[in-house]
Structure prediction request, 415 residues.
Amino acid sequence: MSQHRVWKRIVGVEHTVIEAVELDGEVGVEVVVVSVRPTRSRRGRCGQCRRRCPGYDQGGGRRRWRAPDLGTVIVELEADAPRVRCGDHGVVVAAVPWARANTRFSYAFEDTCAWMAAHTSGAATAEYLRVAWRTVTAIVERVVAGRLDGKTRFDGVTRIGIDEIAHRKGHRYLTAVTDHDTGRLIWAAPGRDTATVEAFFDAIGPERAAKITHVSADGAEWIHTAVTNKAPQAIICLDAFHVVAWATKALDQVRRDLAGELRRAGATDAAAGIKGTRWALLKNPADLTAIQRGTLAGLAQTNRGVYRAYLLKEQLRAVFAAKGDHGRSLLGGWLYWAKRSQLEPFTKLARTIERYKDLIVNTLIHGLSNARSEATNVHLRVLTRRAYGFHSPEALIAMAFLTRGGCCPDLPGRA
Ligand SMILES: [Zn+2]
Prediction:
């Protein structure tokens, strides 16, 4: 194998001629500089549309692009960056076969970066690649934009979940749409109002909108309004995930009310004891440790109210696990019991559930399994809490598509 081909493989480029390889810079900050040029067929093309067009000038002279490191040393590709005049895009820097437009990083570097951002921590990605976190998010935006082309991700979608995701500490919102059958994120945009949801239906077009059979959502009226306007044939279901979350919140309220009562009555030890029950109460029974099971048994003896609330939460989960007519009759029983529970948070929840009963029955009857879209929603919420944050909603959306929208590239050289 010639030196030329060896170097092409090492730096991960195609349609490229290797002119020279040199070590540049001082010890500790050395850079392997690989001088390159596009092969004849790739020269003189528009950086936007890649069509062949006439040359304009030599642009800003030699430019460099980071490629993946070689062992311990930084690698940079160096080449001329002439400009061309495109009929559609005007005077632009000519396309290069080793990098996307308007970036200082090669394809191999950017794909590695995106893969790491999807699979490991932001801090590790930035440190390992010697770039700032903001650079990582900009790279993710570029990689995702290239892989999200076209509307094929909307093809064959019939059952969707529409959800709002808070970010910026709850001051801003995104609306996210997932495909129930694949669990994939298929659309997201800043905002939470009817117009935002209608923009989704406009994006997929009236033909695809007419094929949507089921839409699950939380109780938000603005979602329901948009669905009724744009996909009137779709059956609206209430996400089991949200309903169970309401019950979990009600249970937490009962527990806190009791702890407050005990504290006010001077029973500080008992109040602390109630505080310590939180995790046992909120976990699913199957995930409980032996000690947490003991905690629950103790509660059943001494704090009937909290234990009753716990059973109400679990019973509601059981309603959704049962589905169909059986689930429907369990729901009737649940409402009867909750209304008479003498626990204010649960009598209130019973009224809410009564109001949405038709939509909940839709969920039970149509058996919308939301395990996959729930996983996507949970993941999106985790993303919004990521240590470094995202400088724009678009950066957050790009990261969401990378990890849950099927936009993560393979690591270079592994095909
Ligand atoms: Zn062009």
